[in-house]
Amino acid sequence: MAVVLVNGLVCKDPKLVQANDFFFSGLHLAGNTSNVVGSKVTPVTVAQLPGLNTLGISMVRIDYAPWGINPPHTHPRATEILTVLEGSLQVGFVTSNLENHLITKVLQKGDVFVFPVNLIHFQRNVGYGNAVAIAALSSQNPGVITIANAVFGSKPAIPSDLLAKAFQVDENIIVRMQSKF
Questions:
Q1: Domains of the chain in sequence order
Q2: What single DSSP character describes residue 163?
Q3: Which of 36, 70, 159, 164 could form a disulfide with 123 if both were Cys (CB 3.0 to 4.6 A apart)?
Q4: pLDDT band per the 50, 70, 90 thresholds, residue 15
Q5: Rounded to an integer, what is the distance from CA 112 to the centroid of its chain?
Q6: Is 125 a known ligand-binding residue?
Q7: Least-confidence region, from 1-10, 53-62, 159-168
Q8: Is 28 annotated as a binding residue?
Q9: Considering only CA atoms, which of 122, 120, 124 is closest in space to residue 99?
Q10: pLDDT in tens, 41-68
Q11: Binding residue per annotation — 121?
Q12: C-alpha distances in angstroms, 78 versus 38, 106, 160?
């Protein structure tokens, strides 16, 4: 039997499909937030849950330490809708060029906020306790591009003189930023 690919993934023979192809366990577990940004994203995409292939949905659990952040990032293939389960989060996104307008709000437990597809967005725990959110995404493989990692941590590195000109800062600042990624 020939291998059939759908969305670049092997499509399982329907006769061999099992309940576990549509099951994920673990969103009840708090993520380890003892890292430089103070957050942990637990994804449930097609990589973790094969049954999501072709369904156009996925989700994540995000845990935040006090004042932890989910750094500015984009999802190139998905809109995101986030619900706060615990704590208070400042959330926001930036509209596209030329306006680059920041849309931001502080959310409380039970509040919902939408981040349009491919716009840079972020979350920050503005409380003194832990915070937890669940987000749904409109793709089984939403992708994520964390802005700082992409700009300062690319392999090979974006030339520091180019970034210095783009950010209008001294090149030594760029070199220092690149050393952190």
A1: 23-143 (2.60.120.10), 147-181 (no CATH)
A2: H
A3: 70
A4: confident
A5: 16
A6: no
A7: 1-10
A8: no
A9: 120
A10: 999 999 999 999 889 999 999 999 999 9
A11: yes
A12: 24, 22, 31
